[in-house]
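for the recovery benchmark. tokens below, seq after
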């Protein structure tokens, strides 16, 4: 496939931090993708919460399946726009490597614990994983990914942290844009979690079709699905409806982004980076529907009593684990105690350790070390 002139070309990449011989049968971004898939942090995503804790049911999404869905959507968009599919896929697969156990509730709690020590940002922690924490190669720490992959992982970054990152953090200080491939991964993430959270919410019984009926895209897609398949069972009708909605958002994103790229007259990656705004975007109408959908999910799913009870238990679990390891560093694994005499270094090591936990390991460690039951019986770990 011939790349568009504003796509990232692997041959003009800023490269790796540590020089390596080129791969024989893959290009460098394909190597990045493969390193991400084979790393331990990626495997642990299988047992990290998306919305529902992993052991509530085998059919709900986890951070791993979410990442795979993001990668599929992102790659399809990249192909339609003539962009680098391999780089897009690598960014999408890596974007959640730094997520804590228990989803956003765990991340928020860990950030609160780490406020005196610089805070905790899951995007920045994803970068920390691929740059430092993975221990697979004798020649370097981390995965030694390409500059453009590492840059794409950082969706947001505080200015003080960006200054520490050198060229990688420059765009957060200057107001520039990341590559189009990174922009795609960002919006593919939002498309994926909106639609699979609808699917999981309906499957759980927390969401009902009537909750989504006020959303015009859902209502029209549901009516069309019933018209096309009048004898189909409700489960298939809902799956068809969600698939049609997702397709509307993806198709709109591709069409509108093409128009924006044409209007901006970008002829290089440098032109993309110099733009004041992202060039990958929804049209105004679909952006409005995207926000409406998020509001419905927040009101009907994320603020549901059952989900909030899980989030409360998750946050307290993280806080209590943090307190245990801060005050008793000897409980950390031996390889994670280095430098623990420095308070800030020790706190960051504790955050690294907790962030790397799966849901069930965090619950097991909490029961073992804190010996207070925070989890309802139907969330218990066998």
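predicted aa per position
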């Amino acid at each position: 496939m011939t790349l568009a002139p504003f796509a990232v070309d692997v041959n003009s990449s800023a490269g790796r931090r540590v020089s390596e011989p080129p791969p024989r049968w893959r290009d460098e971004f394909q190597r990045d993708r493969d390193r991400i898939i084979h790393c331990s942090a990626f495997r642990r995503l299988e047992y990290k919460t998306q919305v529902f804790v992993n052991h509530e049911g085998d059919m709900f999404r986890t951070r791993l399946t979410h990442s795979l869905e993001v990668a599929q959507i992102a790659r399809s968009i990249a192909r339609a726009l003539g962009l680098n599919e391999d780089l897009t896929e690598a960014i999408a697969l890596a974007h959640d490597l730094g997520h804590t156990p228990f989803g956003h509730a765990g991340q928020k709690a860990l950030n609160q614990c780490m406020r005196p020590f610089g805070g905790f940002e899951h995007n920045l922690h994803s970068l920390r994983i691929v740059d430092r924490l993975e221990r697979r190669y004798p020649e370097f720490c981390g995965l030694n990914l390409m500059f453009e992959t590492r840059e794409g992982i950082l969706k947001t970054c505080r200015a003080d942290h960006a200054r520490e990152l050198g060229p990688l953090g420059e765009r957060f200080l200057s107001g520039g844009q990341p590559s189009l491939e990174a922009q795609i991964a960002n919006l593919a993430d939002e498309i994926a979690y909106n639609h699979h959270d609808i699917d999981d919410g309906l499957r759980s019984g927390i969401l009902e079709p009537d909750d989504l009926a006020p959303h015009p895209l859902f209502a029209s897609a549901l009516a069309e699905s019933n018209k096309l398949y009048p004898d189909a069972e409700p489960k298939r009708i809902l799956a068809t409806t969600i698939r049609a909605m997702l397709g509307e958002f993806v198709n709109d994103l591709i069409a509108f982004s093409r128009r924006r790229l044409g209007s901006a007259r970008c002829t290089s990656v440098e032109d993309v980076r110099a733009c004041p705004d992202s060039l990958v975007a929804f049209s105004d109408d679909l952006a409005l529907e995207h926000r409406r959908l998020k509001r419905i999910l927040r009101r009907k799913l994320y603020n549901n009593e059952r989900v909030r009870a899980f989030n409360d238990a998750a946050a307290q679990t993280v806080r209590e684990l943090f307190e245990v390891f801060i005050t008793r560093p000897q409980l950390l694994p031996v390889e994670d105690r280095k430098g623990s005499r420095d308070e800030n270094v020790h706190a960051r090591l504790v955050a690294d350790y907790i962030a790397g936990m799966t849901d069930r390991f965090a619950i097991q460690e909490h029961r073992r070390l804190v010996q207070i039951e925070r989890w309802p019986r139907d969330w218990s770990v066998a």
